[in-house]
Amino acid sequence: MVTPTKPLAKTPAARPVVEADRLTEAIELLFFAYRDFISDPDEILARYDFGRAHHRVVHFVGRNPGITVAELLNILRITKQSLARVLKQLIERGFVEQETGKQDRRQRLLYLTAQGRELEQRLAAPQRARVAAALEKAGPGAGEAWRTVLLELVNEEDRTEVERRIAKAAAEQR
Asked: Are strands 108-112 and 67-68 parallel, antiparallel or unpaired?
């Protein structure tokens, strides 16, 4: 007589394997979601011969008018050389302007021009639509749960600063 076996997930030894599979699936979904999340802006950026670094600069300068180059370097965690190349292109092509700091003349404060604000809106629109549709489909409470998950993915030592920066930028946009 053959005895029925229990499903794999119910055995104690199999639980870590099932959990690892679920986490691997979540990681893979994050890769696919990111790929598609950036696909629309990538098409827009390609028309300008810009890349994702340009997008990130436009986004963070747009959300933080008057941000210093040092602050932007801290957010993006890229080299000064990489940022200098991207900024030079954005400034020369009229998307970003820089001013000298009023208190500290060594500071360079960055702002989007009208053309830069228009580009920022064009890049953000499809992403906002994609996120709004996903949250709508996920149902009530999804937005807060998603925010919590993403914030928990941020390095613990950076979370307070990330939350502060997001809240400040949101308040300034209103």
From this structure: antiparallel
